[in-house]
Amino acid sequence: MKIVLTRLDRVGDLILSTPAIASVRRSWPQAHVTIVCSPHNAIVVERNPDVDRVLVASPERARATGRRFRGACDLALALAPRSEDFALVRATRAPVRIGYTYVRRYAARLAAKLSLTALAVSEADPELSERDPSYAVRHEVEQVLDVVRLAGATALERDLVLPVEDLDRNAVAHVPAGGIALHLGARWFREGSTLESVLALLHDLRRFALPVVVTYGLDALEQTAPVRASRAADAVVGGLSFTQWAAVFEKSRLVVTVDTGATHFASATRRPTVVLFEHRYFHLSSQEWSPYRVPAVCLRKPASDAPAELAASRASILNAVAELLGGAHGPDYERT
After folding, report:
1. CA-to-CA distance for 103 and 124, rounded, in angstroms?
2. Which residues of 148-164 are buried (b: 16+ CB within 10 A; e: fewer)?
3. How far apart are CA 173 and CA 327, in angstroms?
4. Which end of the chain, C or N, has fewer beta carbons within 10 A?
5. Strands 212-216 and 296-300
6. Please, are residues 38 and 109 in contact by the beta-carbon 8 Å criterion?
7. Is 301:276 a contact under the CB 8 Å cutoff?
8. Which uninterrupted H or E stretch holds 275?
């Protein structure tokens, strides 16, 4: 049996798809499994033990890439609710083609009838969630698992898969262990958060008498200079490979982040997490993309950058850190 999976969007979303990928492997252990990824997110599955082949293709080439599997594919699954992934799956002409989309994406649901043989429909919708904060939305992991259920999977896995090796751990051996890792992302510096507030937060984190480690990517490169100058962090590390970054989280006691792929990195490395979600659509984001199967506290960004609101936000982060450091919670503990 030959199976093609596709996910051409973000790094974090592909991490959240690894339980579905593992479920495909467990359900069809003798199958040859190819996953098609974008140049941006393919690194997530480079070491994934549940795939036989990783094929890198740009989203713009989705349809052409799908044609390569015509006559050589029994099952094609779109793990992202995107038109590019639907187009790739449709182009394979596999006998069974399945994907998922959101409840109020009516045009996508209609178009899927031309692309797919079956479609899972997620309840996620930002407007419905904001209108009614009690509106329940399942985690994205569960939504993607709906796709493999529809395909006939009989063994469902739920652990995130992100292999970290000793080579990665050795590369970050100089980074202090057992501390608080804060990942800088662009969302720390806009809409309810500022650089000055982040610097104040880093100083406040010293009260826990643990090493404070700051990690960063290209989107926060220019903010690293003032972070270093503040001397609030014991280490400021960037330029890491994907798995080296995961190794830093793995050796930390707790991760503090904003709504980025770092949230899902932390979950994959089984680290307790405090995550600050955007003020708008908080009720959706804090359910669908919350830290997964780890002790966690989800917080809402302030509605403005007013000093009093920023101070209150920092206090809520510190309280959450204290709660996770001092609490005896099970692996599925989560507070929003």
Report:
1. 7
2. bbbbebeeebeebbbeb
3. 28
4. N
5. unpaired
6. no
7. yes
8. strand 273-277
Q: Is 69 helix (H, G, I), strand (E, B) or coil?
A: coil
pLDDT in tens, 177-226: 999 999 999 999 999 999 999 999 999 999 999 999 999 999 999 999 99
CATH code (residue 115): 3.40.50.2000
Check: CB of residue 14 under 8 Å from CB of residue 85.
Answer: no
Tokens 């009614």: give the residue.
132
Q: What is the DSSP string of 148-216?
A: HHHTT------S------HHHHHHTTTSPSSSEEEEE-GGGGSSS--HHHHHHHHHHHGGG-S-EEEEE
Domain extent for 306: 166-335
**Do residues 150 and 116 touch, judged by C-beta distance below 8 A?**
no
Place of tokens 């996910």: 7
240 neighbors 172 (Cβ within 8 angstroms): yes
* 131 and 204 both lie in a single domain: no
Q: Which helix (H) or strand (E) holds 11?
A: helix 11-16
Can you say whether residue 289 is alpha, beta or left, with left for phi > 0 and alpha for psi between -120 and 50 degrees? alpha
If asked whether residues 14 and 133 sit together in one domain, one would say: yes
Residues 123 and 253 occupy one common structural domain = no
Q: Are residues 241 and 184 in the same domain?
A: yes
- Per-residue confidence (pLDDT) for residue 287, from 0 to 100: 96
Instruction: Using a cut of 0.70, tell me whether the model's pTM lies above it.
Output: yes
Could you tell me if 146 and 218 lie in one domain? no
pLDDT digits (tens, 9 = 90+) for 74-114: 999 999 999 999 999 999 999 999 999 999 999 989 988 88
Amino acid at residue number 260: T
Are 44 and 133 members of one domain? Answer: yes
